Amino acid sequence: xxxxxxxxxxxxxxxxxxxxxxxxxxxxxxxxxxxxxxxxxxxxxxxxxxxxxxxxxxxxxxxxxxxxxxxxxxxxxxxxxxxxxxxxxxxxx
Length: 93
Prior knowledge:
By secondary structure, this protein is mainly alpha-helical. It has two helices and two strands, in the order αββα.
């Protein structure tokens, strides 16, 4: 399974490298107020892909922190219930 994973990684790397080599033409990205940026197509695509990933991660952070707080509260509650159950068993013995 390890070799299959590495073969898949190498294949994916070669496909992406071929994509990068074939799309190295310069493009001009025009912004508001006359601003423009000239870069190769691959750099522009990689930059906007990375920005999309970053925005997606930022969008999920609130949900992740809420779930972590809820898990911590549930663990405290479970620990407290286990502690009271142990005390109750010791008193019955």
